[in-house]
Design goal:
single chain, two-stranded antiparallel ribbon, DNA primase, PRIM domain, mainly alpha
Length: 256
């Protein structure tokens, strides 16, 4: 949103990642330098050589960071030590299993940080970033700069099959994201079984039906159908916006 990108399709990779396909005409024409700059703007955690991350700096004048700090990241489960000291870590490890959920564990951790600050006499103004640094460390996504900036980088298309899990790379419905289960995503094997089951049900094919029509009908019998609808809705919205832009440009030319 900060960079003016409107047509964004979010796609589950089929394993651990998420792809964002940005389909705005202007963005597709960006140079590698512009693409790298966009990724740099969106990168709030730098990963060090030993695999841990650290925030890139304290809050810049950025609308992005302001939203991140108020974005409700505090429900994550953190395997964390305070200052990497056993006297802080061990009590937390003993109390975490007693809490009902990750929200309660996060409140426990924040309370311990507050008490630690009071004991050592550290003012909130000097240590006020500890909680959001933890949230960024464990919750903010790590972006693949090479995929984002490389004009010739290989990309895995939506609905392709992940070679290691067999799961389909499916579009995500952001309105129902809290209901998305990556382990319930259809695999190539499950889709084959679903198609076989539909045939075994005794459905008769129309002998005059063309192959494209049969394929379009067959996918609707599978668990892939809801994800195809998400993709079709995205394409329809993008086409509508493009027609509106063409009409706007046409009107300007006529007025000129």
């Amino acid at each position: 949103e900060d960079l003016g990108m409107k047509h964004r399709l979010w796609v589950y990779s089929g394993r651990r990642g998420v792809h964002c396909w940005v389909c705005d005409d202007a963005v597709r024409k960006w140079s590698p330098a512009l693409r790298a700059a966009a990724v740099e703007y969106l990168t709030l955690v730098k990963v060090s050589a030993w695999g841990t991350g650290a925030p890139t700096g304290y809050p810049p004048a950025s609308p992005l960071l302001g939203r991140v700090r108020t974005g409700g990241l505090g429900s994550a489960v953190f395997a964390i030590s305070l200052d990497r000291r056993p006297q802080h870590r061990e009590p937390l490890q003993g109390e975490f299993p007693k809490k009902r959920d990750s929200v309660q564990r996060w409140e426990l951790l924040k309370g311990r940080m507050e008490r630690t600050r009071r004991v050592v006499g550290t003012g909130r103004s000097a240590a006020c970033y500890a909680d959001w640094e933890i949230m960024l460390q464990y919750c903010f996504p790590r972006l693949d700069i090479n995929v984002s900036k490389g004009m010739e980088h290989l990309l895995k298309s939506p609905f392709s099959v992940h070679p290691k899990t067999g799961r389909i790379s499916v579009p995500l419905d952001l309105q129902r994201l809290d209901q998305f289960d990556p382990f319930a995503v259809p695999t190539i094997s499950s889709l084959c079984h679903e198609l076989d089951a539909a045939v075994d049900d005794g459905e008769q094919e129309d002998v005059g039906e063309t192959e494209p029509k049969r394929r379009a009908r067959d996918y609707k019998k599978t668990s892939l159908a809801p994800y195809v609808r998400v993709f079709e809705q995205f394409v329809e919205e993008m086409e509508c916006a493009r027609r509106g832009e063409l009409l706007r440009r046409s009107g300007k030319r006529q007025a000129g």
